Amino acid sequence: MAKGKITLSVIKADVGGYVGHSSMHPRLIEQADEKLSGSKEKGLLIDFHVTRCGDDLELIMTHTHGVDNQEIHKLAWNTFTVCTEVAKELKLYGAGQDLLSDAFSGNVKGMGPGVAEMEFEERKSEPIIVFMADKTSPGAWNLPLFRIFADPFNTAGLVIDPTMHIGFKFEVLDVYEHRKIIISCPEEMYELLMFIGAMRRYMIKSVYRGDGEIAAVASTQKLSLIAGKYVGKDDPVVIIRSQAGFPAVGEILEPFTFPHLVEGWMRGSHHGPLMPVPFYEANPSRFDGPPRVIAAGFQLANGKLIGPRDMFDDPSFDEARRKANDIANYMRHHGPFEPHRLGLEDLEYTTMPQLMKKLEPRWEKE
Ligand code: F6R
Ligand code: MG
Ligand code: MG
Description:
Bound molecules: fructose -6-phosphate, magnesium ion
Helix content: 25-40%
Order of helices and strands: EHEEHEEHHEEHEEHEHEHEEEEHH
């Protein structure tokens, strides 16, 4: 790692739900806290914060070892493993569901957990926001990330702050073809939208300012594609740096006043509105949802995580929550019909192919 740089790693997994897939038992948080405390004492971590969104355990860690560091990934894996033991003891639901292998092989990527990491030089003051979602997939970040870093109707700073006039570059993954591309805004805004509007296939992985400074990193694991079958949703996270040459905190939160439709509700097979909620309301219950997102704000102080502040614990998001409930009612009335239920193609990674096969012999030419 480069001198003076710190790394922020957010690694998450669903290692057991309480009750069903709706929330998390406090003992899992305690167990994770205990495990990471040990590593902080030994000096591997500078600091950490353990939290959860719905049934997902979120390890927010700072250190000086760079991204994709084997020790850090191993620590996260071992933490999920000991938490799985607790989940098994309590017979929590889906204990260990996101740990796709029995053995750790050097990096948690592709093994089930979601990962977002960035390394940067901590500024004089370094405000960051970690968004964490449940019952949805990484494509859910496409719309808000576009609005934050490319839409001047959302981010006044794109117009008013000359340091942002150099624009932002978006690294977009094609998760079907396992390839990536960098697209610059504002110059190539229309091209960018052409791809990221297809949220299932194209996902924004990271955003850089025009001068190359890292601004945002999202987790882009797709469990269904990793395992070749449906094994749970991805329930993504994204880290965003803020202020003084980056979008302001309020500009970063603003897109979430619109509860846009995302996939991942009930059985990972339905579209629903993404509801911004305070930490204590991150318990998706109605029809296992609707999908929700929390925002943990931190100030970094020499790698120490000062916070979190619960950024959606603010009545100015009440209207978004109300609207999300209206949309949820409207979508629910479709029952098993599209577009509430995902399109056929999108159900391919669920049990749909089995059902197709079963009925195959009964189809006749008409
Ligand atoms: C899981 C989820 C849930 C489950 C549903 C069925 O994250 O979103 O909607 O898909 O509760 O779960 P199983 O198949 O485990 O009974
Ligand atoms: Mg679960
Ligand atoms: Mg989850």
